[in-house]
Amino acid sequence: MFTKTFASIIAVLPFVAQAQAKVWDVTVGGSAGLVYTPPFVNAAVNDTVHFTFNAKNHTVTQSSFDAPCSPLLGGVNTGFNFPVDPSATSGFPTFDILVQNTEPFWIHCEQTGHCPMGMVFAINPPATGNTFDAFKAKALALAPASSTDGTMTATTIKAADPTKKSSAKWSKRSLMRQY
Fold this sequence. Notes:
Blueprint: H1 2-19, E1 23-28, E2 36-37, E3 40-41, E4 48-53, E5 61-63, E6 94-98, E7 105-108, E8 120-123, H2 132-140, E9 169-170, E10 174-178
Parallel strand pairs: 1-4, 3-8, 6-10
Antiparallel strand pairs: 1-2, 4-6, 5-7, 7-8, 9-10
């Protein structure tokens, strides 16, 4: 009896763990402007971060804390594959990231000018040190200075960590990514 009951419990455990996984809904752009809403989530392993792309053309592009507006070589990058008509009210494309660990995961929008205007997101940012607010401040610091004398300023952005790799699988209107 004990062996049969124990085996049944073991067989059910994977389903219980899977049932407890959470889906974190994140809006990309939309009426809130050039933001991800919410700006960060604290996800557990096996949780899914579900991005819904709203009006215009935004990306979910992985970066690093030190280079918030530079794509991470081999990192997650939806590219500009989800343009949404400004008059659309439904049928928004989506992109999912399946969380595989609790390390910080930094994201920005690659559309010209969006990241330096603060369009950044994080999964599991630390509460101290390299916090979400510090990450966003680094992105905002990359915004070009305004000038009244007609001059332009060039900005050099350090490349992200080239040692990190990732892969992605596409479906018709969505993308699922594991990290």
